[in-house]
């Protein structure tokens, strides 16, 4: 009759047949991940996972959510995050854990293994699901990080002249991007001591009420920093849309092109130097 499948019994059985389990597990994973990771790296990861699994079982762990498996969950999370950053697919990440079943099947057929390994198979299912979940979370975090980096790259602040900076916008302007534009512009105004800022919307495909509100907020923020702001790139189609929507830019300077806005800012700067007053 098979021994009672207590965590301690399972740990003892796994320890006694560790070589059999490791060998079958490694072969199955190496076959599935051929060309994606080295055999040595797989062997190292599997060794850490198996050691943590054994420690958890010896501590009486039954479910992966038990405190006894804290270390194991940490290792799985690290492996999943590393795989996500290396561009592994969800299947490739999970298969490295699910391949442990091959070792357990080999263990179940061993003539001297008198223990039911069904609880271990259920535990491996939990390991695989946890790995998949942490992989998905890590990939979402990477995507968010990359999106933020793209936002930074897509909103450069350029110094055109002494005291004049410009933000050439390309693409759709939404709330998230407006926040990035505002922060970068304000920081640049402080760093350079510029008195004029030009927001060029030549590359913005369309201007609606929401986009106009975003632009107005940025202009107001720049003015609070003591800088005068000009919106350039007002094409005929955009001008017609602004009028049709009843959007009011108030006393904000607008120009048809970036060149016109630069000339205007240079003229204002020259006049301010003559009078000794801010532009």
TrEMBL record:
PROSITE patterns: STAS (PS50801). Pfam families: RsbRD_N, STAS. The keyword Phosphoprotein applies. Gene3D superfamilies: STAS domain (3.30.750.24). Residues 154-265 form the STAS domain. InterPro entries: Bact_StressResp_Reg, RsbRD_N_dom, STAS_dom, STAS_dom_sf. Keywords: Phosphoprotein. This is Polyvinylalcohol dehydrogenase. It comes from Cellulosimicrobium cellulans (Arthrobacter luteus). The gene is rsbR.
């Amino acid at each position: 009759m098979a021994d009672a499948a207590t965590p301690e019994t399972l740990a003892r059985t796994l320890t006694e047949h560790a070589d059999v389990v490791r060998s079958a597990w490694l072969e199955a994973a190496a076959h599935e991940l051929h060309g994606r990771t080295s055999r040595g790296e797989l062997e190292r990861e599997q060794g850490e996972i198996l050691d943590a699994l054994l420690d958890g079982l010896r501590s009486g762990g039954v479910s992966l959510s038990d405190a006894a498996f804290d270390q194991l969950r940490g290792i799985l999370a690290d492996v999943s995050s590393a795989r996500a950053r290396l561009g592994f697919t969800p299947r490739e990440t999970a298969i490295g854990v699910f391949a442990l079943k091959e070792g357990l099947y080999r263990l179940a057929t061993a003539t001297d293994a008198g223990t039911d390994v069904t609880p271990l198979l259920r535990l491996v299912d939990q390991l695989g699901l946890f790995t998949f979940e942490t992989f998905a979370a890590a990939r979402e975090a990477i995507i968010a990080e990359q999106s933020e980096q793209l936002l930074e790259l897509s909103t450069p602040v350029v110094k055109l002249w002494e005291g004049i900076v410009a933000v050439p916008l390309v693409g759709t302007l939404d709330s998230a991007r407006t926040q990035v534009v505002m922060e970068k512009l304000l920081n640049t105004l402080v760093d350079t001591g510029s008195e004029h800022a030009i927001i060029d919307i030549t590359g913005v495909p369309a201007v609606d009420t929401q986009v106009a509100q975003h632009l107005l907020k940025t202009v107001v923020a720049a003015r609070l920093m003591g800088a005068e702001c000009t919106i350039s790139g007002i094409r005929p189609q955009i001008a017609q849309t602004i009028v049709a929507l009843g959007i009011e830019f108030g006393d904000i300077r607008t120009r048809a092109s970036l060149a016109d806005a630069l000339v205007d800012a240079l003229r204002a700067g020259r006049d301010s130097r003559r009078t000794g007053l801010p532009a």
